[in-house]
Each structure stands twice: as structure tokens, then as C-alpha cells.
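Encode chain A's predicted structure.
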Amino acid sequence: MSERVPAYTAAQVRAAERPLLDAGVPLMQRAAAALAEVVRDELARIEPTAVTPPHRTLEPVVRQSPDAPLPRVLVLAGSGDNGGDALYAAARLAADADADVDALLVADRFHQDALTSAIGAGVRRIDLAEAGDVGVHYALVLDGILGIGASADPALRGSAREAVTDLLSRARAEGRMPRIVAVDIPSGLHPDTGEADDAVLPASVTVTFGAVKAGLTSGRGPELAGDLVLVDLGLGEGLATSEPAGEASVTRIVEAREP
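Encoded structure for chain A:
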């Protein structure tokens, strides 16, 4: 069952977040905890791909045994807050033995505390070559490369673009795309206009924080975002005086809790 909610621009969301951040509210940890919850739900629907023979198409199914191998998750982490959200969520998934998690850092800079937490929980840092046949080796990819902070020009560049285009090419050659969960917005999608080029991982689910971003509902947004899950971070007061930029249908609203 879907629910209609307002959509806002990146600037409106950032302005609503600012008083909470200034007050020391741990928005990143709240977002990461909710993100990990959604990923757990997604993983519960699909069989681990680590045991899948190469080039065999695998449809999502219910796991039959708790003793089955853990599903494998690939985290793509950029240099900003989205990368931090993704890595903290990865730490939770690994620590709770929900998944076997690999992290691919696609920028020279990264959220150091989040990476330390992830590695400490058992997440393995890999390079692009080690990702292998992504459609075969991973049940799910967590796209945390870029968020709304890159709204001036969100097109992927450098190693991030190389990683996404390479993973897309491999998945298409294999005939299977793993389930993609986008962190806040699909990386490379403009959060206000929905503009995007071809270097974007099409999400199965987008877990968007605080409010639905206008770009998820316009341009290529509906094509690339998949199902929308809204994480309520408590921005209602900050957004109360803002005129919504549009409206969206979300499949679920997750109430963020204290980590």
C-alpha cells in the first residue's frame, strides 16, 4: 500500500536538517540504522548469490534455511555523508551477521569513522577488480556514492563513474542485475530536477532521508529510483514553512530511532 507525501528540494531539506545538526542530533546514525533495517528486509526476500552458478538468472525467493550461507552485499561508498550512511549501515549488517559485506570506496576521501566502524564489524574493503561478476557474486548493492550535497552537478566522475559503468557493463553481460538499494537518491541523479546521464545504477528501492527529494518524482527519477521508502528523521518542524516542490508515493515510512 502506498502513501502520498510531499517532496522537497535539496536546499529545503538541508535547511530543515541544519537546526538538528547544530543541536547535535545524530542524524547520520539514525539514517544508517533505518537503512540497515530496510536492507535486512530486502535480503530476507532473496537467496544468497554466492552459491549461484555463473550466468544463472536468479529471481528473488524466500530463504529456506537459517543455516544457508549469508547473502553478499556490495557497498559503494563515496566521500560524503551518503558514503558515511552506507558504511555505518554496513557495519550494522556485518555485526548482526545479516550479510557478508564488501565495501568499495570510490573516492580518495571517505568518512573515516564510518569506515573504521565497518571494518571493525567485519566488512571487507575491496577494489573494483575484486568485485568480480557483480550480478553473480552479490545479492544486493548499496549505492552510497553521492547524495544531495552534489546537487549543483551530480554527474558521476573519475573512479566513481568508472565503478558504476564497469558494474553496469558486467551485470548486463551476465544477464543479471543484483538488487540495488540507493542511499537517499540514486547516485548521479539530480535531486531537484531528476536529470541524469547513463552512469547511474537503476535502483530497486531508494531509501530517502527526512523527505522525498523532488528529483525522485521528475525527469528520470521515477525510472531510476524504484520503490521509495521514506525515513522520517524528524524534519517536520523544519519543513513546515516550506512550500513542497511536488508530491510522491512511498511504499513505506520508517520512523528513525535513536541508535
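The longest helix spans residues 27-43.
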